Amino acid sequence: MTDASRPERYAYLGPRGTFTEAALLSIPGAAEAEHVPYATVPAVLDALRREEVDSAVVALENSVEGSVPATLDELATGEPLQIVGEILLPVSFALLVRPGVTMDDIKSVASHPIAQPQCRRWLAGHVPDAEWHAATSNAEAAQHVADGHYDAALAGSFAAARYGLSVLVEDIHDVADAVTRFIVLRRPCAPPEATGTDRTTVVAFIGEDHPGALLEILTEFSVRGINLTLIQSRPTGAGLGSYLFWMDFEGHVADARVGEALMGLRRVCADVRFVGSYARADQIRPEIRRGTHDDDFTKASTWLESIRG
Amino acid sequence: MTDASRPERYAYLGPRGTFTEAALLSIPGAAEAEHVPYATVPAVLDALRREEVDSAVVALENSVEGSVPATLDELATGEPLQIVGEILLPVSFALLVRPGVTMDDIKSVASHPIAQPQCRRWLAGHVPDAEWHAATSNAEAAQHVADGHYDAALAGSFAAARYGLSVLVEDIHDVADAVTRFIVLRRPCAPPEATGTDRTTVVAFIGEDHPGALLEILTEFSVRGINLTLIQSRPTGAGLGSYLFWMDFEGHVADARVGEALMGLRRVCADVRFVGSYARADQIRPEIRRGTHDDDFTKASTWLESIRG
Fold it and tell me: A single Pfam family, by name (chains A, B) (predicted)?
């Protein structure tokens, strides 16, 4: 619960200057909120669970590298939290160095592990001899550069000022139009109102693996004309053959077609966790297939009542 | 409506001595009812529509020859009637002749057109030179034999006494264990109570043909674990590309999985006609797939309400 007498508090993956902080700052009204950095994704989520903050922002997937396993696993099997919003941020790195350092001086480059493969080709082409080092965040990489541990960091250009560094090269990325998807989390709550351009996230648990298990699940969506936007299988950790599917799809839990698909999923899966329904950042409106509008469900239900006599 | 002051009245495909009459006589309590023969399937159904009778019995399908098109088309597109029961009768013909006639005397054999292909091989083997003639019913064929028009009739052995004929050969059929399925009809009404071994019949109309139309319909059943027992496509008569599917499947309209499948069908089809839910004559209990029991639907619905907040 938000205490009206104090500003909204957000946890995010710090330190200051991360892409996550940039994502958080893009939330309307977030500039007036309090931002509390944590060192790891689990720490961010635990802060929310312990009610140290009202909301949390973490990365969920990157269009080049795929999903962020730590976030997925925590939300799928940790103490439940709910996605209430998402943010898309273009992936574009800057090469940050201490003032005066030139390309020829760079023998080491640090970044978050997810940044490295996204700049792999650029690094090979421009600083082929530099050694790459992992940091827990791009901002931490910048801090290490400021401290003199490494020569350069791949980070958001917005991190330069914060760490007293210079932007040597801007707009580094191997793939054009790459974006990172961040999610805004709260403790379990009523979902935000449907906007017509929503996304829903659930985790489906397969208790005992059997042939056709995935097809069975996908059919629950396809038969109601629902388009999946992300699917990731992950082991649950409860032994071989026990796994889960993280699924994002078009629509809101309040939509009739989504409700029926979720009930279908609930019936055929060992368990289903509802992770949230929220407005899509890209505002893409789903194509609602003939026969799957709310109105079609209402009419069909009225008809069924009539024939049941 | 049945008038309590007079016996139940049944219309059936006559004349007396048909397999349909034998099917009707097998209905519990039907011996005390009034039986009114009509010359054709449409005449039987119209008598029920015009309220000349309370119920009607007609053949729907034969395990050797398939469905009876006249019955299917009338029930699919004529003024609605409802199936409230079914009867299975073994297909077994007798060769009926005037007393004293022997196999060597037989130069002509009459029967209903559906009987002929079921005895084709037997006829070819035993009376290869006899000419076959169509009659509007097997009983009418027997009448023609009694009248001296033909030498023999293929009919139920129970028809012999009625027409003063002798049974020359019994138990004639090319295929072992063949059965005919008859249905009991009433004017539209509340379906009989579910028994746990029920069948439901619907007609689905495809307004505009499109690729995958049949798969779309079948998926509505398969995703809810419902097994089809009969499917027949027929033109609706409303022009090329406009057709319908007659579908019989396991379960009762009161079952949750059936209700949801029917609503699904109603949403994706141009129109759906409910033709009836009724006890199966063979009393075969459906295998209800994991997750499709009524209880599973109830639990899923409760869960959905909880996550919708």
Answer: PDT
